[in-house]
Amino acid sequence: MQEYTDKIRQIARRLLEEGTVDMVIGFRKGSMPIMNEPCMVRRPQDVDQLVWDSNCGINLANYLTDRKEKIGVVAKGCDSRNIVTHIIENKIDRDQLHIIGVPCGAMIDKRKIASLVEGEITDVTETEAGKVIVKGEGFEKSFDKAEVLQENCAICIHRNPVVHDEMVAEPVEEQTDVDRYADIREIEAMSDAERKAFFDDLYKECIRCYACRNACPLCYCPTCFVDESRPQWVGKGQNENDIRTFHFLRAYHCAGRCTDCGACERACPVGIKVRMLTKKLEKDCKELFDWEAGISLENRPPLDAYRPNDPDEFIK
Q: How far is it, in rounded angstroms, from Cα 155 to Cα 261?
């Protein structure tokens, strides 16, 4: 990981000194363990703030929307796919970007780690042997990294950036033996009543904070539908219908665009598995249109283009 950090700093310093970019967006250490935070570096002397490890789960594409500067951006696989979507949707120009590609070894899940230890965590480090060392007041525990991965990272099949200007290291081997939609098929097999009960239970803890929306790199509408008052699409209270409407409509807005980066789930303060809806729509797009979001700059998303041979079995 230190090799990645050193290379990112080296590239960022060069880009800023040469004037190739006005700033570099990457990560720096957060004020709490397992919580690295976005960092915008504008001066060569500040690049030593930049870091890279398995706590860089936030999707940095979220910070590119409608920017005018020339930007260097650190991008793992899911970041790069969202950058592709931003370019396709005209939220930023490809010529504005210098993409620093990072082969991703998967991000660790702060909630999983917290559930496996007792007491306050003071430090989390990762060894070259694939161990995650968790220290706190009066304890030190070691876990295999595979035990504490974010769920989206455990099933990721695009760990390498799909678009980049330079890479900090050689590509990592992609996973080919994972079943991305086993949990979705279980829900699909439920009866209507069982499915309704499942989602009612899933979202019962929602406090309508909109952290999932704010963390999502796809949610860039100037005014979100939940904030519209003329007309008012959804109520502001904790009514279960309003909660359900928010989550279902937000998911539909991401259909054919979501890269399963996990930003929504990572941001949720009450631990809701927000990805259950977007994964279903991702599965449908793959099966109906053979489409994966953010893979190519050349092709439009399926819901953004008409083809005479589009599936129409849903028409009765």
A: 11
